[in-house]
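Lab meeting, action items carried over

1. Structure of the two-component assembly. Owner: GW. Status: complete.
Input record:
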Amino acid sequence: DADVTQTPRNRITKTGKRIMLECSQTKGHDRMYWYRQDPGLGLRLIYYSFDVKDINKGEISDGYSVSRQAQAKFSLSLESAIPNQTALYFCATSDVPGQGNTDTQYFGPGTRLTVL
Amino acid sequence: GQSLEQPSEVTAVEGAIVQINCTYQTSGFYGLSWYQQHDGGAPTFLSYNGLDGLEETGRFSSFLSRSDSYGYLLLQELQMKDSASYFCAVRDDYGQNFVFGPGTRLSVLP
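Predicted assembly:
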């Protein structure tokens, strides 16, 4: 089974609809992230959470909100979707840096969201 | 803030060697990572350099020069399956989150 899973994998919705993307992980990591990727561009950070009670805005948080329901679950919501939120969304996890790890992020398979 | 620069595209033939460069600007440096992403897939970790020098993992090697704010990913004995996008990444100024470069699309030709 995959360590980081995302649902749904694909979603088409209309402008103004509320959308929730879900992420679950079995790696036991405290740190979780939501990224957005647009064609030809790198990954941009939307929100991140370093534990259940710690949630922070990333580079492009406007129009998004998140919920950390448990250590293993981190969901991303678009309260009122707009067409320029059409993108590929990735959830990721990581260990705490500097604890003998290789500073790796583990990504989910992605959710392709289209807003019409 | 941080910024990273990579070439947008690189093309090479099967069996060849290719080098993908990355230059970065960050006030606090915690190491340089490389990720591979195939079309439609998720980024996967390739390598990490915390100190200057070369790290080798099979056909892939990664190099870092902190004094030059520069690193590269070296892919040897290229295979068709290496066709993908490659991203370099650093941690932000506070050493917490990752900042990714724009990515280099590698095309391996037969």
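2. GW to write a short summary for the group page. Key points so far: Chain B touches chain A through 24 residues (CB under 8 Å). Chain B has a mean pLDDT of 92.
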